[in-house]
Write a structure and sequence with these properties.
The complex is a heterodimer of chains A (255) and B (302). Chain A has 255 residues and is mainly alpha-helical. Chain A has eight helices and no strands. In chain A, helix 4 packs across helix 7 and helix 5 packs across helix 8. The two termini of chain A are 40 Å apart. The relative contact order of chain A is 0.12. Chain B folds into two domains: 215 residues, Rossmann fold; 83 residues, Alpha-Beta Plaits. With 302 residues, chain B is α/β, with parallel strands linked by helices. A six-stranded mixed β-sheet of chain B has the order 5-6-7-3-8-9, sandwiched between helices. The relative contact order of chain B is 0.13. The interface between A and B is large, with 39 and 45 residues.
Chain lengths: 255, 302
C-alpha cells in the first residue's frame, strides 16, 4: 500500500480535443516574434525603403505618376512571403520536437499548427488588403510611392487582395511545414527522394507539354482562370500540402 | 498494493542494421524511483523515447498506463520527458518554456517552478541557445519536477550541474517525491551521483538489459577480495568472478553474490581484505568486462 497523493492522479477524460489543439496554437504564439514580429519587421523595412526611394526619385525631378507606374513592378509587398517558408520549416523542425516532449500527439500538433497557419494568414491578409486601400486613398502615403498597390494588388477589391494574400501565405506556410515532415519521418533519404522526384515530375510535365506542342493551350487555360481562379488554385494546392503533411507527420519522429 | 505503470516485452528498436534496443523485457511499478543506467549509446534514450511515444518500436509489446503510448493523448498527458538533447522552438527562452508548461501538464505547480528557478539561478530571459550545459539541464529538471507527472523521466539530469545545483536537485526531488509520490526514471551514465536516490536499478548495455534489480540488493551484491594472489585465487575458485586485477604477487578480484558469515571467517583466516563494491564500480565491472570480451573476440576474428 502506498501513500495517497495530495490529489488523485488517475484522471479520466475531462478535457476536450479543442483544448489540446488550442494549446498548440498558444505554443506557437508564446514567442510572437516568429509568426508576427519578424514578418512585419521585414514588411516595415521594405515599406521604409520604398518611401525613401520614392522621395529620392521625386526629388530628382521625375513625375510622381511615372514613379508610381514604375513601382507597380516592385515585389516589396511579397517580401514577408519568403520568410514564412522558414516559419513553416521551423514549426515542424523545432516546435514539433518540443511539443512531443510536452506530451502532445502528432495529430493534435498538426491540427493546431494548421489552425495557427490559417489564423496568421487571415490576419496578415486582412492587414495587407487594408494597407493596399490606405495606400490608394493617401495617394502613395503622400509621397507617391507604391508598395502595396503593386503587381496584381489594388486591381480588384479589398476582398480580392485579401483572398490572394490568404491563399499565398497559407501555401508557403504549408509547403515549408509539410516538406519538413518528410525530413522528420524519413530524414535525408526521404528529402533526396522527394527532391529528385519533384524534379523528375516537373521535367516530365515540361516534356509532355512540349512534345505535344501544347504550350499555347496551357497558357490559355491559365489565362481563362483569371485572378480569382488562379488564387483558388493556390488555395487548393495549400490544402493538398496540408493533407499530405498530416499523413506524413503521423509516423514522424523528433530529432 | 502497487500498480504496474509500464510493461515492455521483447521491445526492439532497429536503425537499419544497427539494433539500438534488443528485445528488452521490464516493468515499472507505480511510485518508485528507477535508475536507467548504462554507458553512452547503450540505448537509454531510445527506450525512454519509445515509452513516451516519440519513437515507434520495431518489435515487441509496450503498454504504458495500460495502452500503447504513441498518439494516445490520455497516456501522454500523464508523462513528462525532457530529453537531454531536447530541441526548443526558435529563439525560445526558459521563460517561454515555463509559460507554456501548464497548458500541457495539468498538475503543474507554478510556485514550485518559480522556487526552483531561483534555486538554480537560471537566467530565464536568456535564449536557450545561449545557455550553458548546466543551465540547459536545469531547464529539464525544473520542468520534470514542477510538472508532477505520474511518470516523469529525467534524462542525464546531472549533466553540467555544479555541486550546489546537484544538491538542490537531490533535495527537491526527494522532498517533492515524499509529498507527491510518482514514478520516476532517472537516466544517466553519472552513476555515483544518483546512486543514493535509486530504489531500483535497470542497467542496459548495447541495447540489452544486463541487470534489473532492487537497488539495495545491488549495493550488497558484489564484493572485492584483495590479498596475496594464491590466497585470493583459492578463495574465489568456485565463485562468479566479474572482474580481476593483478599486480605482482597481489590480486584483487570482484565476485558476484553475497558472502555469508563462514565466507567472511575464511577470508579473515586467509588474510584477505573484503571491500563492498559501489554501484558505479559494479556497473563498470558489468559493462566494462563485456566490452573487453567483445574486443578480444574481434581480435581473434581478425
Amino acid at each position: 500500500m502506498t501513500a495517497t497523493a495530495a490529489q488523485p492522479l488517475a484522471r479520466t477524460e475531462t478535457r476536450s480535443r479543442a483544448h489540446e489543439i488550442w494549446r498548440i496554437v498558444r505554443l506557437h504564439t508564446v514567442n510572437p516574434s516568429i509568426f508576427f514580429g519578424v514578418p512585419w519587421l521585414i514588411l516595415g523595412g521594405a515599406w521604409a525603403v520604398s518611401m525613401v526611394l520614392a522621395v529620392i526619385i521625386t526629388g530628382s525631378g521625375a513625375q510622381p505618376d511615372d514613379v508610381g507606374d514604375g513601382m507597380r513592378y516592385s515585389w516589396a509587398v511579397l517580401s514577408p512571403q519568403w520568410y514564412l517558408v522558414v516559419v513553416g520549416v521551423q514549426a515542424v523542425g523545432l516546435t514539433f520536437s518540443f511539443a512531443l516532449g510536452f506530451g502532445a500527439t502528432r495529430r493534435d500538433f498538426w491540427l493546431g499548427t494548421s489552425l495557427m497557419f490559417a489564423l496568421v494568414s487571415l490576419l496578415n491578409a486582412a492587414a495587407i488588403a487594408t494597407l493596399v486601400q490606405l495606400e490608394i486613398a493617401t495617394d502613395g502615403w503622400w509621397v507617391g510611392t507604391r508598395m502595396f498597390d503593386a503587381l496584381w494588388y489594388g486591381q480588384t477589391s479589398w476582398f480580392g487582395d485579401f483572398y490572394a494574400t490568404f491563399a499565398m501565405q497559407l501555401l508557403v506556410l504549408f509547403v515549408g511545414a509539410s516538406v519538413t515532415t518528410v525530413f522528420m519521418r524519413w530524414r535525408m533519404r526521404g528529402m533526396m527522394i522527394l527532391s529528385f522526384g519533384a524534379i523528375a515530375l516537373a521535367l516530365a510535365a515540361v516534356a509532355l507539354v512540349t512534345l505535344n506542342q501544347a504550350w499555347p493551350a496551357v497558357f490559355e487555360w491559365f489565362g481563362s482562370l483569371g485572378l480569382g481562379g488562379a488564387f483558388t488554385l493556390v488555395l487548393a494546392m495549400a490544402a493538398v500540402f496540408a493533407v499530405a503533411g498530416y499523413l506524413v507527420i503521423r509516423r514522424a519522429t523528433p530529432r | 498494493m502497487t500498480r504496474t505503470v509500464v510493461r515492455a516485452s521483447g521491445l526492439t528498436k532497429r536503425y537499419g542494421t544497427f539494433t539500438a534496443v534488443d528485445a528488452v523485457d521490464f516493468t515499472l511499478e507505480e511510485h518508485r524511483i528507477y535508475g536507467l543506467l548504462g554507458r553512452n549509446g547503450a540505448g537509454k534514450t531510445t527506450i525512454m523515447q519509445m515509452l513516451t511515444g516519440q519513437l515507434f518500436p520495431n518489435d515487441g509489446e509496450l503498454e504504458v498506463f495500460g495502452r500503447t503510448p504513441a498518439e494516445h493523448a490520455d497516456v501522454l498527458r500523464r508523462m513528462c520527458f525532457i530529453a537531454e538533447s531536447q530541441r526548443y522552438p526558435e529563439d525560445f527562452t526558459p521563460a517561454h518554456v515555463f509559460t507554456s508548461a501548464p497548458w500541457f501538464f495539468e498538475n503543474w505547480d507554478a510556485a514550485f517552478a518559480e522556487q526552483l528557478m531561483s534555486d538554480f539561478r537560471l537566467p530565464v530571459k536568456r535564449r536557450i541557445k545561449k545557455l550553458s550545459r548546466g543551465q540547459l539541464s536545469a531547464v529539464g529538471v525544473i520542468v520534470g519536477l514542477a510538472s508532477r507527472a505520474e511518470l516523469t523521466f529525467f534524462d542525464e539530469p546531472y549533466l553540467g550541474l555544479d555541486a550546489v545545483a546537484r544538491h538542490v536537485f537531490y533535495d527537491r526531488l526527494l522532498a517533492d517525491y515524499a509529498e507527491h509520490p510518482r514514478t520516476i526514471v532517472l537516466s544517466t551514465h553519472l552513476i555515483d551521483e544518483v546512486s543514493r536516490l535509486l530504489e531500483h536499478v535497470i542497467l542496459i548495455d548495447q541495447g540489452r538489459i544486463i541487470l534489473n534489480r532492487d537497488a539495495d540488493e545491488v549495493r550488497g551484491s558484489a564484493t572485492t577480495v584483495a590479498g596475496a594472489r594464491a590466497a585470493v585465487e583459492s578463495f574465489v575458485a568456485d565463485r562468479a568472478v566479474i572482474g580481476q586485477e593483478a599486480l605482482g604477487g597481489l590480486a584483487s578480484v570482484t565476485i558476484d553474490g553475497r558472502l555469508d558469515q563462514r565466507d567472511r571467517i575464511l577470508a579473515a583466516e586467509l588474510g584477505l581484505e573484503l571491500a563492498p563494491v559501489s554501484l558505479q564500480q559494479l556497473i563498470v565491472h558489468l559493462t566494462g568486462t563485456e566490452l573487453d570480451a567483445d574486443s578480444t573476440e574481434q581480435e581473434v576474428a581478425a
